[in-house]
Specification:
This protein is mainly beta. Helices cover 0% and strands 43% of the residues. It is built from no helices and 31 strands.
C-alpha cells in the first residue's frame, strides 16, 4: 500500500475541449519504413507467413493472402497491391489466422496510426504471441481514440522468440509482411484554448470501516443496511476481492460473511472489514383470548396473556404502532384493540396479537336490573330481556369480528344464532349508551 508523509498532493493540469468527426483522415502517400534486419537464414526452411487472413467480427474476409511461401530476404511490401488492403474502424476487433510452414512461430502486429513512418511499441503494437505456434490465431483491436489515416500494418514472424521491435529480428529465421490499411477513426476538427485546472490528489491510504462486533445477530428480513459499522460512503461486497458491490437493500443470509469498505476523499479502502451475520427465528405470537372483558379502572397490565418478555402496543389503524412503556399506566377503553408480542430468549420478536376489550358494568347498575339471556348454551334463538329498553346487541367471535347485530329498541329481543358455528361468542348489550358483555356458548 502506498504511503506518504503528505496526505494530499496538488497538481496543475490543462484541459481543452476538442471537436472530432469520423474520418479516414490522410489518404496521401505512405511514408518510408525500415526494412527488417537480423535475418541470417530468412524464411527458407518454413519460418514464414504462408497464409495471412484478416476477418471482421462477422467472419467476412478483409485480407486473404494465401500460399505466399517465403520471400527472398524475408521481407515483402504489399502496400501497393489493391487486393491486399483493408478498412478498419476504431473501437472494432478483427480476427486473424496465420499459417506457417514450420512450428514454434511467434508473431507481432503493429499499425502506424499516426502515420509517422515508425511503429511504436507502446501505442501501436496490437498483438504479440504468448507462445510459439503454428498456425498463429488471434485478434487485434483498433483503439477507440485512433485517428483516421491510410497507413501501414506490419506483420512480423520470428522462429521461437518474439521480434525485438518492428525493425529487428530476434532470430535468424522469420518473415515480415507490410499491408496498407485505412483506419476510420476520429479526426480533430478544432480545439479550444486550454484552461489551467488545480487537482488535489488524496495520497493517504484509506482505512477500512470499524465496528463494535464482527459477529452480529438479526431477524428475518434484515438487509446489509442494518449491519452496524462506522465509516464514510460504505460499500458492501460478497468477498475480499470481488469488485462488484452489493445493493444496500439486499437481504442478509444466515451464516454469511460480508465484506465492507469505506471511501474517504474519493479513495476507497483497499482492505475490507469482514462481518459474519446470524438470522434468528421469529417467535410465535403469545397466547391469550382476542376478546377480553374488563372492569372500570383496569389497565393493559390486567389483560391475561401468556408469553416471554411481553411488549404492548397501541394503534389507531392497525398499521402504525406505538409501544407502551408502562402497561400498568394505560387504562383500558371499551371496544379498543391493544396489541402484544413476545420475545423468547434467542428468538426475534413475534407478530402482534390483537386483543379487543369490552367493559363489564357493575351488576348493581340500575340500567341492567333484571337483565336475562337464555338459553345458554344456545342452539337456535338467544332470548334477551331487560327492565330498561335494549338499544343494541352485537355478537362477536373470539377473533373480535362482529358476526351479528340487532337494534331492537325494546326490553325484549330474540337473536337467531342458528347459522353460527359452534363455539364461544361475546354479546355486547347496550342500554342508554352503556354496555355490558356476556359470554354465549353456541352448540
Amino acid at each position: 500500500m502506498k504511503t506518504s508523509l503528505h496526505p494530499y498532493q496538488v497538481r496543475l493540469v490543462w484541459v481543452a475541449e476538442v471537436f472530432l468527426s469520423e474520418s479516414s483522415g490522410d489518404s496521401g502517400p505512405l511514408p518510408s519504413y525500415c526494412s527488417p534486419s537480423g535475418f541470417g537464414s530468412d524464411c527458407g526452411v518454413g519460418d514464414d507467413i504462408d497464409d495471412f487472413i484478416l476477418q471482421n467480427s462477422s467472419g467476412n474476409d478483409l485480407i486473404s493472402h494465401i500460399g505466399t511461401g517465403c520471400t527472398s530476404g524475408g521481407y515483402a511490401d504489399y502496400t501497393g497491391d489493391s487486393n491486399l488492403t483493408a478498412t478498419l474502424i476504431s473501437g472494432q476487433t478483427y480476427n486473424f489466422n496465420i499459417t506457417h510452414n514450420f512450428s514454434s512461430q511467434r508473431v507481432k502486429i503493429w499499425i502506424d496510426f499516426n502515420k509517422d513512418g515508425s511503429f511504436d511499441d507502446t501505442t501501436e503494437l496490437l498483438y504479440q504471441s504468448p507462445s510459439g505456434a503454428n498456425p498463429t490465431i488471434g485478434s487485434i483491436s483498433i483503439p477507440q481514440s485512433a485517428i483516421g489515416n491510410t497507413t501501414v500494418m506490419r506483420v512480423f514472424d520470428n522462429y521461437s522468440s518474439l521480434p525485438i521491435d518492428a525493425c529487428t529480428s530476434n532470430s535468424s529465421f522469420g518473415e515480415v509482411h507490410d499491408y496498407k490499411v485505412t483506419v476510420i477513426g476520429a479526426t480533430v476538427l478544432c480545439e479550444s484554448d486550454r484552461e489551467e485546472v488545480v487537482v488535489t490528489v488524496n495520497d493517504q491510504p484509506t482505512a477500512p470501516p470499524s465496528t463494535t462486533a464482527v459477529n452480529q445477530d438479526f431477524c428475518s428480513g434484515a438487509t446489509l443496511g442494518d449491519i452496524q459499522v462506522t465509516g464514510s460512503d460504505i460499500t458492501w461486497y460478497e468477498s475480499e476481492t470481488i469488485a462488484t458491490p452489493l445493493a444496500l437493500n439486499q437481504e442478509i443470509e444466515d451464516g454469511a460473511t460480508y465484506y465492507v469498505s469505506q471511501t474517504v476523499d474519493a479513495c476507497e479502502s483497499e482492505t475490507r472489514l469482514a462481518i459474519t451475520v446470524s438470522v434468528k427465528e421469529t417467535a410465535d405470537m403469545p397466547t391469550g383470548a382476542t376478546n377480553q372483558s374488563f372492569g372500570q379502572g383496569d389497565s393493559i397490565f390486567d389483560l391475561v396473556v401468556q408469553g416471554y418478555n411481553l411488549r404492548w402496543y397501541t394503534s389507531t389503524d392497525g398499521l402504525i404502532f406505538n409501544e407502551v412503556n408502562d402497561p400498568s399506566q394505560v387504562i383500558l377503553k371499551d371496544q379498543e384493540t391493544y396489541y402484544v408480542t413476545q420475545t423468547p430468549p434467542g428468538m426475534c420478536e413475534s407478530e402482534k396479537l390483537p386483543i379487543t376489550v369490552h367493559r363489564v358494568l357493575d351488576v348493581n347498575n340500575p340500567l341492567f336490573n333484571g337483565l336475562e339471556y337464555y338459553p345458554n348454551p344456545v342452539e337456535v334463538n338467544l332470548n334477551i330481556a331487560n327492565n330498561k329498553p335494549i338499544d343494541g346487541v352485537v355478537i362477536f367471535n373470539l377473533q373480535g369480528q362482529k358476526v351479528l347485530e340487532s337494534k331492537p329498541n325494546n326490553s325484549k329481543t330474540k337473536i337467531d344464532m342458528s347459522r353460527l358455528a359452534s363455539g364461544t361468542y361475546f354479546a355486547k348489550i347496550t342500554v342508554e349508551e352503556n354496555s355490558t358483555i356476556v359470554k354465549i356458548i353456541k352448540e
